[in-house]
Recover the amino acids of this structure.
């Protein structure tokens, strides 16, 4: 069994990350998922949250929002709707974004199920950005 796995994060516009990893953690639609080398094949829907990729050269953190994750062989591929590197997130802007998302969630965003889902997704994305900017898990 290999000691690493290949982790690729691909968005519609770019390859956001392609690295060797010893452990990868990400938010799936149904909760947090951790992947190590030798993991069984799977295909799951991504949620909105933080992605942490640990490797021999340190750790990389990103915020991913929607898409799919597939483990096949020794390769984990995340096809994300969006992926933002933690170091590129402005903490103050992320806090403002979270405050605005919270206001929208409580002030009538729940008039329809689709509007409620959109408001909750915006909250989750803003919370992940705040956590990533602070260098901790959400």
């Amino acid at each position: 069994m290999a000691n690493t796995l290949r982790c690729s994060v691909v968005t519609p516009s770019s390859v956001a990350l392609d690295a060797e990893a010893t452990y990868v953690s990400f938010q799936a639609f149904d909760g947090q998922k951790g992947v190590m080398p030798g993991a069984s094949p799977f295909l799951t829907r991504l949620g909105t949250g933080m992605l942490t990729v640990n490797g021999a050269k340190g750790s990389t953190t990103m915020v991913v929002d929607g898409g799919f994750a597939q483990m096949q062989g020794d390769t984990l591929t995340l096809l994300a709707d969006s992926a933002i590197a933690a170091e590129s997130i402005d903490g103050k802007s992320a806090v403002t974004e979270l405050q605005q998302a919270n206001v929208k969630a409580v002030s009538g965003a729940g008039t329809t199920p689709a509007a409620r889902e959109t408001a909750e997704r915006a909250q989750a994305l803003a919370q992940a950005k705040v956590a990533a900017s602070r260098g901790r898990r959400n």
Summary: Helices lie at 91-106, 113-133. The chain has two domains: 5-86, 89-133.
